[in-house]
Structures are given as C-alpha cells and as structure tokens.
Amino acid sequence: MNSELRQYEQTRHSRINFLYFSFLAWVILSGCGYRMSPETQLPVRSPGKVEIMGFIKQLGENAGTVYVSFDQAEWFDGTEAGQAMQEDGLCVDSEPDCQPANPFYIRNQKDETSIFQVSERVVIVMQTLSHRPDGTFNSDEKIDLDRFQKAYNSESTAHLRLVPYWITVENGIVITISEQYVP
Predict the structure, then answer these.
(1) Are 160 and 175 found together in one domain?
(2) I need a labelling partner for 176 at 20 to 30 A (CA). Which of 79, 116, 121, 164 fits?
C-alpha cells in the first residue's frame, strides 16, 4: 500500500508540474508583448506609452517576473455611452434618448487577451481594496505589486477579478495599474 501511495503522489506531482510548465511555456511563447486586434492600429510591442482599459484575466509569476493577461475593453460615459449602446443594438428604436442605467457603458465585444510583463516598479492605485472606519472605500489607495498579487488572488477580495482596470504599457511593459471605480 505504501508503494502505491508513493506512486500515486509521484504521478500527481508529475501532472501538476506538467500543467505548471505548460502554462509557463504558454506565457513565454506568447511573447509577453502587446497584441491587439487589427482595428486598434497598434503594432506588437509598440514603442512609447499607451493607456488601455479592460479586465485582468490572470495575474501570475514566472521566474520572479510578474505577467498579466489583459482583456481590452472600451469605456464610454455621458452621451457617448448612449451612442455606443445604440451602435451595439442595446436600445429599442422607440427610445430616442437611450442611456445606460449607470453613467457609463463598457463595450467588450471580443474575449481576447494579451500578455504583458509587469514592471517591478509598477504604480498601482486601488479604489475598492480597503475601507475607512466609517465604511467608505479608501479611494486612490497606492499599494505595491506584492500586495496587489495577494489581494487579486484572494477569495476575500474576489471582486478585484471582476472590475475594470486602466493599465499604462510602455514598450510592452505595464508601468501603471489603476482600478476603475464602478458604482
């Protein structure tokens, strides 16, 4: 029985290692660069800075380097939000003044992700991570990358995996991450 248990554990560890290294290979082979749909007109690893809004799908680490899988979306507010909703067919023809229930509209028509390396010196600003004694959020709370990784991957702050973020990418590397407050 002891040898069967040992064999089971070895097989289990082999499978876990295989999955782990498969994921790492996927991250490495993805080029860790900046890929977007052709409509965006931005080349892979575009030089300079670009700010993108969207959703963080995964946050992981490989050999001490942090990577983020990011799903780009579009943010509309004001009259542009209503126009975008009309373009997306979300308004009834009889509604001449179509507006979203909230003062914003998020368009995410494609479920495509891009993999980016995250700078060790990334500036991270959160809106809903912690609360003041009166129960209001500590808005514009600056945190370090280690705390962000722990919070993002924690079940107690699982809402952080659902909210949109603005990231700034410079030469293919994320240098800022800002949570977009959504009422």
Answers:
(1) yes
(2) 79
Please count the structural domains in the chain. 2
Q: Are residues 41 and 75 in the same domain?
A: yes
Phi-psi region of 41 (alpha: psi -120 to 50; beta: other; left: phi over 0): left
Distance, in Å, from the CA atom of 24 to the CA atom of 60, rounded to the nearest integer, reads: 9
Q: How far apart are CA 44 and CA 169, in angstroms?
A: 12
Domain co-membership, 149 together with 174: yes
5-16 pLDDT, tens digit each: 455 455 444 444
Q: What is the pLDDT of residues 123-164, one digit of tens each?
A: 999 999 998 999 999 999 999 999 999 999 999 999 999 999
Side chain identity, residue 84: A
26 and 42 together in one domain: no
Collect contacts of 81-89 with beta carbons under 8 A, ≥24 apart: 81/105
Q: Which domain holds residue 169?
A: 34-179
